[in-house]
Amino acid sequence: MFDTSERMKKLPPYLFAEIDRKKKELIAQGHQVISFGVGDPDLPTPERIVEAMRRAVQDPSVHRYPFGKGRADFRKAIAEYYKKYSDVELDYENEICVLIGSKEGIAHFPFVFVNPGDLTLVPEPGYPVYQIGTILAGGMPHFMPLREENNFLPDLGKIPDSVAEKAKIMYLNYPNNPTAATADIDFLKETISFCKKHNIIILYDAAYHEIYFENKRPVSFLSIPGAKDIGIEIHSLSKTYNMTGWRIGWACGNERLVSALSTLKENIDSGTFEAIQIAGIECLLGPQDDVKKMRNIYQKRRDILVEGLRKIGFNVKIPMATFYLWLAVNSDSLSFAEKLLSEAKIIVTPGIGFGPSGQGYVRFALTIDEEKIKEAIMRMRELFRR
Ligand SMILES: Cc1ncc(COP(=O)(O)O)c(C=O)c1O
Predict the structure, then answer these.
(1) Looking at 259, 285, 311, which one is the last position of a domain?
(2) Is 1 domain-assigned?
(3) What is the pTM of this model?
(4) What is the pLDDT of residue 12?
(5) Would you say residue 358 lies in a domain?
(6) One domain, residues 22 and 155
């Protein structure tokens, strides 16, 4: 009776539905399911941030519509944070806009710059919102495969000139979900000059920038000369401070891109709850020991999983950032994930769900504790011994 719009019909199918159904069935049957599925931190938000929120929420002045690009003090804190950790200068008045989580900004951005029929350059495997935002805005994604032989970076030489000429936005995400790859300076420089040549905006998704190992901090996109001429970076407090439920992020970089996104948002939302923004100041300017601790926890989990998988016989590449492990399984990724679920009661995400180049891989999220990881390895050892 109520037929959905043509744009809704163009959305890709939800590939994980069958696994989700099976998971619920197994839990209902009383099985102890171990889930490496969702990239949602299991650790709590640090107490100093919860306390800042507790204090902030008591002030009635924050109970009203937030409006605009976000609180000036939070935007100043963001600018200070970029200066301190990435040596990037940001003008807090014009180059930063607060978001209701980075997903919101990523999904809305193409509405600002994509006309029906325009192309965007979308990495695959990748976070699905790049193509979904493009499709909802009437554009068409042109996929850039991320292959292991190219360190999971897009091969710019393979983008036809005719596509580059019509492309409005290139999406990049490093440290990368789902491959856990990081981008090097040379690649970023090359991509910036490619996009400048073809007049393409870069939307750089830095959601996992702070999740890295062995003190190897990823390169900051905005620190590369020329990045701000064509780029907007989308960042988030979700992963760094275990705040996925709070819904807060920001867009920063090129003034024109930031201000156009902010204009769109003024028309469709009324901003991020100010108490959360005040807690956000504590996130960025308070002591960062909890972030360091969290990195160590993920690193330990990573090491346990890597060692366990290697002992079983998998060829594992050690992830240097994000809380994901992208495992080549040398078989159909969906069948592999289904076998793990039905025979070992372990959930992993089939790589094919992130795009065709994810075929042959599965993704483990390190968002469960060490004991569960060890138990999962025991179950897998048993399964693959058969
Ligand atoms: C690559 C990437 N970008 C953005 C997000 C969205 O994060 P949030 O909306 O919580 O800021 C996620 C969440 O999983 C992600 O994996």
Answers:
(1) 285
(2) no
(3) 0.97
(4) 82
(5) yes
(6) no
Q: Are strands 34-35 and 249-253 parallel, antiparallel or unpaired?
A: unpaired
**Angle subtended by helix axes 274-285 and 72-86, to nearest 10:** 20
Q: Pick from 228, 262, 285: which residue ends a domain?
A: 285
In terms of domains, do 84 and 132 share one?
A: yes
Atom 6 of ligand 1: nearest residue by CA position: 103
Mutate to test the pocket of ligand 1, among 38, 99, 102 (most ligand atoms within 8 A of CB): 102
Greater model confidence, 24 or 92: 92
Task: Classify residue 153 by its DSSP letter.
Answer: -
122-145 per-position pLDDT tens digit: 999 999 999 999 999 999 999 999
Q: Could you read off the pLDDT of 311-366 as tens digits, one per residue?
A: 999 999 999 999 999 999 999 999 999 999 999 999 999 999 999 999 999 999 99
Task: Indicate if the pLDDT at residue 19 is higher than 80.
Answer: no
**Best mutation site among 99, 108, 239, 354 for ligand 1, i.e. most ligand atoms within 8 A of its Cβ?**
239
Q: With a 6 A CB cut-off, is 234 part of the ligand 1 pocket?
A: no
Residue 21 in domain = yes
d(CA 21, CA 18): 5
- DSSP of 1-38: --PPPHHHHTSPP-TTHHHHHHHHHHHHTT---EE---
CA of 256 to the centre of ligand 1 (A): 23
| Atom of ligand 1 at shortest range from CA of 126 | 1
Atom of ligand 1 nearest to the CA of 176: 1
Q: How far apart are the first and last CA of the chain?
A: 52
Domain range for residue 325?
6-44+289-385
Question: Which residue owns the Cα nearest ligand 1 atom 14?
Answer: 39
Among 203, 211, 236, the mutation site with the greatest number of ligand 1 atoms within 8 A of its Cβ is 236
